[in-house]
Amino acid sequence: MAKTKKSTYHKNFKTSDSKLNKDTTDQNPILEVRDLKKLYQMGQMTLVALDSIQLKIYSGQFIVILGASGSGKSTLLNLIGGLDKPSEGLVLFRGNDIHKGDDEDLTRFRREHVGFVFQFYNLIPSLTALENIQLVTDLKSDSMNESEALDIVGVLDRKDHFPSQLSGGQQQRVAIARAIVKKPEIILCDEPTGALDFKTGRLVLEALSNVNKDLGTTTIIITHNESISEIADRIIRIKDGRIFSDDRNTKKKQIDEISW
User: Fold this and answer.
1) In this structure, CATH architecture of domain 15-249
2) What distance in Å separates the CA atoms of residue 93 and residue 98, rounded to the nearest whole number?
3) pLDDT higher than threshold 70 for residue 93
4) Which of 120, 179, 221, 240 is a plausible cystine mate for 115, CB 3.0–4.6 Å?
């Protein structure tokens, strides 16, 4: 029988560690980007999607990355999540270059350490909420209980419902449960409220905030919605493929205080 290849990344999922010093820089970053560039060739023209990005992200932070459509924020999220490879530069997870190994290593990084939440829920229509989550737990032996994940995001009472029987907000919360059930150290969210109305969007943000607070999961949301940044520990603004501001949020609001 072939031996299972061990991950080259250091696994250290501890809530107590993750909750310490969210805004200090005297700890080692969980994620670091150095001189990151992403270029796309369009005929004879080269499109620069990201240009010389430098970024350090610390364990337990709740970060919002703001930018207009085409600013490069989704490209950045895809690169740090290992969904795409940079043209130049490094993405380091706990000091290890995630792109140094082969595709199998990259797949293992995504499976073991990162959870993804997208604008559209990507639930399998023929499976219940619980069964959609079981697809993930089948891939990772040390996952949390599926019902526990649903309970954290407030949809345990919908576990036996199919996606067509759920509202948009409930489907998104199931998608969040699917992302956190494998106990990732980082959760990456691409416009998670983009397809939702304000009231439903706030419920989704509350679920993400609870995951960050209760599990200590480093949480990164990209959005064009300025109001969402008001609940973040840290606000990063990106424009034309470059970071032009990176600030600690000294006036952080509660979710029920924001509107859009």
Assistant:
1) 3-Layer(aba) Sandwich (3.40)
2) 6
3) yes
4) 179
